[in-house]
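Blackboard transcription, Thursday session:
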Amino acid sequence: MPDKLLRMARSAAGPVRRPVMLAIAGDSAAGKTTLTRGLVEAIGEDRCTALCVDDYHRYDREERKGLPFTPLNPQCNYVDIMEQHLQLLATGQPILKPVYEHATGTLGRPEYVVPKQFVIVEGLLPLSTKLSRACFDVRVFLAPPEEIRREWKVQRDCAKRGYAPEQVLEEMERREPESAEFIRPQRSHADIVVKFSPIAGRNDPPGTPLSAELLLRPTIRHPTLSHVLTDDVATAMHLKIMRDADGTPVDCLHVHGHAEREESRLLEEAIWADLADKGELPQKLGEIVPGQRSEPLAITQLFLLYHLVAAAQG
Amino acid sequence: MPDKLLRMARSAAGPVRRPVMLAIAGDSAAGKTTLTRGLVEAIGEDRCTALCVDDYHRYDREERKGLPFTPLNPQCNYVDIMEQHLQLLATGQPILKPVYEHATGTLGRPEYVVPKQFVIVEGLLPLSTKLSRACFDVRVFLAPPEEIRREWKVQRDCAKRGYAPEQVLEEMERREPESAEFIRPQRSHADIVVKFSPIAGRNDPPGTPLSAELLLRPTIRHPTLSHVLTDDVATAMHLKIMRDADGTPVDCLHVHGHAEREESRLLEEAIWADLADKGELPQKLGEIVPGQRSEPLAITQLFLLYHLVAAAQG
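(Written on the board underneath:)
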């Protein structure tokens, strides 16, 4: 029935402005929300829609009890509906997003979500299928070292979700095989892999922010930084060519936790200078929690903002 | 970003078989569910998906209390999401359909719906927009006389939803302006308008089934019946040319409630004979409630089945 398709297409509203789509994938407590929060604040809520795609549960908590998989498993989720909703958002259309209530472990009233100019999608599985990946302009994977992630998860789940540390660690162990099978493979499909971690071999004083390591794949065009950064790894910020797991050359941008504000400002300006039509350099990036700031986080966020603005400019 | 669209399209699965879509629109208690039930039974649940599109509520019962409109009003519904879901079903894709719980008046866990070969969509507003109408192969509007509908609604809402007759009548009165503004105009967009009613001027004994009057618009090709039916209105079944409200010629098929089984069988065979590749004539149509059968309902259902099978055969 090609005529029906044609009628449907012709009856649809005229061409809609398609939003710029950013994916931030990563395991539980990998830092997705912290990274996203700063981006939304910099762009402004009037121009930015942020959503989490971890609500496409096929089963509620009660139903999952007898099942041989955790929510990390695609079989436990309506991945086809997640793909569908990502396509709809990517073409400027609203969705009725399912809502999973963490407090009760049940599925509740869905939420009407309209994509604004920028859409940031964070979650466990947004880069898990070919179709879902095709919906994004920029794909990010967060890959902190497992010991850092464990620390963050215990901290958050105990403080905000009322669990005991042993419970959290036990659950992480139970989920590990599915983390390995379904979450971590998304790393290879990211344009940018972000790793926040302490620098190996250094004994920075407690309270020093974690360093950021950004693996920059040539799957999208990154800002030119080789004129302001060298590959001298002894400096607080450097850019170094290396080989990706599959042998292709990639750049690796390092920003150490002890980098000075003055130093990082130069890098920020270089990143922003590469935009054709740049507004003011966004301020107030890098907030971990109110009052606690990290230069490496700020630069990571600015780097993603660069890509969002560049994609919007076509 | 045409490239993103292209990537999305190319990443999607190959061409899916598109289901045949039938809309049954009409006001509350117009007989939509009774009509649908027989169709699903005749086709078989393995080949037929039936759904009601009255669950796209923007507000729950509590939130509606202060609002100046009833659920009949498009403003009270996510009509854009209903359109979206109809398009998805029409192109063979699953949806996560919202669910309104009548018992509590709240929105609950959405339901995963996969379109089978035939999709029957009943509800208050499935023909209310140009885009929603474009999703259907066959569009039906149920238009019983208001006094019949009132009787049916009081009967059902008191028996099944625990209301008192005065409450039901009061609510109908409150809804009347929106019935006139939003529900009844869909009649003009139907390929077939079905009216079950007693025959004016006849005093059939109580228990005589209602007659069916099918207005057949030339917007789709109907089975040829003029060789078995005349326009002699004194007979129990007749076919009569008349002018539609806008002046275009339409056919009007009448099946009286007192039609004999033998007589109606001839008509059924004539309807079915018009199919290129006909299976067996479906039996057991026309059930109003278990044990109570109506020839006019049976023929109406068969007529719709003809259209479903014809559309499937292209």
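Lecturer's comment: Residues 18-139 of chain A form a domain with the Rossmann fold fold (CATH 3.40.50.300).
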